[in-house]
Fold this protein.
Amino acid sequence: MYLFVRYLQILGGIQLDDYRLRYLVLATVMIGSIMGPIDASIVNTILPVIAHSFHTTISMVQWVPMIYLLIISSLLLFYGRLGDIIGYKKVYIWGLAGFVLASLFCAFSSTVYHLIFARALQGVAAGMMMSVPYAIITGSFPSTERGKALGINAISISAGLAIGPSLGGFVTSLWGWRSAFLINVPIGLVGMILSQKFIRELKGRSGGVDILGTVTAFLSLFSLLYFINIAQAIGLNPHNIIFLMVGVLSAIGFLYIESRVPQPMLNLELFNNLTFSLANLSALLNFMSQYVMVFLTPFYMQRILHYPADKIGLVMTSFPLATMMVAPFSGYLSDKIGTRVLASLGAGICALALFLMATLPPHATQIDIMWRMALFGIGTGIFQSPNNSAVMGSAPRPYLGIASGVLATIRNVGMVLGIATGGAILYATVPDRILKVYLLKGSDAFLFLSGLKCAYSTGGILTGIAAIISLQQKRK
């Protein structure tokens, strides 16, 4: 632990004795936070294996990551407010404990439906541990070090995303896909112990839980996101139109309630801050583009290039590894020169990388894929730390939990919409009979690749818009 903290101190250029406690907190949050990205990247990598194991389709197996993200996205605002009331430390540790238990349920699922249910339980717990880390870090560091701390924290996220594909592919090749979920257990237990020992209790505003706001927010987010995902698979019909109506009416009800209750779950005045609003919108578009790529690329490698799970995992590692190398220095630089130019530059590089992904041939080499994904990782590393700093720095201190929850909600909604966008484009451009084939050759592979290229190009447009929006933020 000492050596790890010492590494952070050297990276941050700060003497260990002067700031030991705050960097112990940062290191502890990083160790706990690595579990979510490891799990997410493993699941994305082994989705083709899970689909084959349960003899199911892409449209069904995409619910394994989808339900997880839907539940997280629907609960993050509530957990952020709960952290403000009872303390960020409690919410974080409860999330770690629940995530470990749900991971065990995933590992022993007997059908794809059981796995989807277990992933929903995982989402309930993951929402807790994802909603408050930014608040814990922001509350532990002065504003002059906020960008650097958030950038260093991005190491854990990127490291998880980097480790996950290779580790998941390796253990899946040896012991099957179920073993991949068991990786979370020792990491979660270590995270709980260290969090209890080093994180000091931080709170925001006192008061009660906004029950009506919580219920309407959950109904709105879940119904709208469910409608988007089911509509892209089966089209519009009276049944999914009902979910659209429930989502819209719940959203209207949520805004009405939050504008009138004395202690709202989400203070809508936060969005009067131009930087807060634009930075969150940029994050939404960037994560949408990211998950178009992350969701579809393993299917490209498995169905067209016929790669095994361990090889897919190795290739997917190039994206988060590049992010991990760049993010800390981007965060440090944003403390010096501001956030808007760096965020715009990073999103623009992501757009370029996705347009280059759209040029991949039917017989690409590993290097062809890896350098394009690494370029996207560089853009992500340049974009995320300054953009996160802009969001958290524009929120008043008593609302750090809510700001952290909003940012995490935006991130996860972007992931859900990215998967839905990629799936919708694929189903709209590729014949259904081809989507059911496990290994593709000849003209079928060409048709599948054409659909992928349309999806990659759409992702490039989305994060290109994020680059333009980032420039509209206020100067430092």
About this structure: The chain has a mean pLDDT of 80. Residues 2-209+265-470 form a domain with the Growth Hormone; Chain: A; fold (CATH 1.20.1250.20).
